[in-house]
Design brief:
The complex is a heterodimer. By secondary structure, chain A is an alpha/beta fold. Helices cover 42% and strands 13% of the residues of chain A. Chain A has 19 helices and 16 strands. Chain A has a five-stranded mixed β-sheet with strand order 2-1-3-12-4. In chain A, strands 6-9-5-10 form a four-stranded mixed β-sheet. The longest helix of chain A is centred in the first third of the chain and has 24 residues, at 2-25. Chain B has helices at 2-26, 30-59, 62-68, 80-87, 90-122, 129-141, 146-156, 174-187, 190-198, 203-214, 216-232, 235-240, 249-264, 273-279, 283-294, 297-315. In chain B, helix 8 crosses helix 16 (297-315). The chains are: A alpha/beta, B mainly alpha.
Chain lengths: 504, 319
Amino acid sequence: MPKTTKIWGLILVMVLVFSLTLTSCVTPSPTGTGTTEPSDGTPAAPTEPTVTLKMYLVGNRQEPDTPKVLEEANKYLKDKLNVALDLNVFGWGDDYDQKVNTALASGEAIDIVFTANWAANYYVNAASGYFTELNQYIEKYPAIKQILGEDFLNGSALNGKNYAVPTNKEKVHNWGYLVRKDLVDKYNMDVTGIDSYEKIEPLLKIVKDNEPEITPLCIATMDAPFQLLDWDRISDDDVPGALYPDNRNNTIINNFLAPESIEYYNTMRDWFNNGYIHQDAATMQNQLELMKSGKYFAASQSLKPGKDDEIVASTGIDWVQIDVTRPVMSNRETTGALLAIPAGSKNPEKAFRFIELLYTDKYVKNLLNYGLEDVHYKKLSDNVIELIDPANSGYNPGHGWKFGDQFKDYLMSNEDPQKWEKFLAYNDEGLALNSLGFVFDKTNVETQISACKNVVQAYYKQLFTGSVEVEPTVKQFEAELKAAGVDDLIAEMQRQYDEWLTAK
Amino acid sequence: MAEDISVQNPDIIIEDEHRFKTNTSNRISPVSNILLNILFALCAIICIAPILLIIMISLTEEKEILVNGYTFFPQKLSLKAYDYVITAGDVIWRAYGVSIFVTVVGTLLSLMVICLYAYPLSRQSFKYKNFFSFFAYFTMIFGGGLVPWYMVYTQLVNIKNTIWILIVPYLMNAWYMMIMRTFFKTTIHESIIESAKIDGAGEFRTFFVIVLPLCRAGLATIGLFCTLGYWNDWWLPLVFVTDSKLYNVQYLMYQTLNMIQYLASGSAQFAESSKVLADLPSEGARMAIAVISIGPIIFAYPFFQKYFIKGLTIGAVKG
């Protein structure tokens, strides 16, 4: 029996691929491709052929059971919208970027792509005109706007135009520490009242004094308590220029040399000298791997409700979450996970209606996220499920946060039943930053940016980890940044930001 | 008779003397012999050590890698990494099949295309020799860029997501063609072709029956280059293949390593990155994939070795 379904799945895929091959061969008619699905139900509009929507997502891999899931989804989608879905998943990083960017540049007929500030760069591709402007559709089908809220949706717009719609999930972020639960219990540590990165010091001291085998603080490249200063960066991580994360003013400063940062470098230097930080911190790459090794007590992390449970699952060690900074809504969240419709799409309206379904239709959302009921997951109650053999499952893509309304996802049995309520409360708690929706245009200062990046890359690791004397290094750092044109860079940032503010 | 010998003898003596002389002057002293041996032994170790290390890591227990780092001498051996690779099975074996098919078919076709282009250019009597030489040479200096290249294969010849996309783009290589042309030129004298012609052979017969068998060394050299090129390629699947059934072994490995590096570097700024990272294969499993991907290609070397050096040196004279 499984064999035959497999063969049928294969045939289905072949038919699908074949039909796609054909359609990209022939100049397609504006209505799109002919139907390839074995039709079970009656189509919504029998005169109109079913449109196949090609969708690209980023993920671990193309799940082996994707054809089965799509078969099921397409039966439903045919009745609902008279569309069929062709879902392709490509790997994180280069894999996804290379494929999607090349396809976009060549104007290929893709209907929906995942995009973000970190994958298939949303800003660049939108500015290059590779994405369809969605405002008309957002007005015409208002469900998405109602679910996301005006603030959040506008935050993802570029110059007032929406080129993609963000996932409805946690809309804010905060920073803090994860600390080992066993040690907290053992020494009866007090983890309350830590509202700034340096206040964790007493805990580190206890570990240092009593546990010779364990390093108190784990740092790897950018994953350092520096993040707890939570600078509202204007550009990339390693480009100077940021605002304070509390809307105190609209002046952009060089965050690497701000008084708070220098104080941080000094603190780290003390900690390093006290042995709170491992000697090789400046050269380590992978914080999670280090945490897994069980040799570290605390690590700085980007947090959200239930982050500790998540990390417990991935490290096999119990952690306690210490929330340090206040939750804020920044560009990081508004453009953290979006779906866009490429300009090459022949059916943007159908594509948009399908995207809308991901926000409004619980069945479709969960089908694509968890697969088939009783094949890939078991329902324990109305909203709680359990995955069937997740390690060897044919469909366990972890798509939940990548599209649509995450609050419509089923909860897993090991998750907090209040998870979504906590998320909503967390979202409400967040402060919307002034810079929300501002996008820095790099064209005028590209030389300065790359020069500054080089300087920052050369210095930040030592300073973030306290591996060098602070005063002489900062002096050198400052001089080199100046030579690299940091003043021009920040002036340009300020100019664009002011213009944007007045326009707003 | 006696005269003959006396006439011949001095020659022999001189020749012997000559041979002796060259021998001594070419022979290296024991000291430098030892030094050279040590030097090359070191080179060999530098080459082999990393591979050994990879094999050892793939056999080390996961926990131990995290705690102690990489080592040649793990305290505890474990086959768990290979277990993972084999159970994650389907994907990897499929990719293996793709790699082998592409390498074998690609190499054969590529040799064919290259030889068929190179051979006419090696012949004096070919009228448009210069034009076609330049035509090939031109592609070595100027390329169309990524997007036009992509469009040619996806829109003009629509072979995206077929096995051919992994073969066709590398069929012709101007540089190999030039090596092959020079090889034909230096190995095959015009008179051989002439005599074949006199014996009644047509151009194709001359080429396939006379010329190609004489050029085995050149074929082996270019064949090895093509084999390695096809086996080690991950660029074509990266750009063109969106159907995971057509991924090859190198690409799977590239993808896995690249994903882990990317997620670990913190450039992926989404809150779920740590969770995703945890689902990816462990350190040991990655090394196991690497070991497996070395696989059959390592056997290609001894096979080609016989011809390799000769082919390379003869063909290397450009012109």
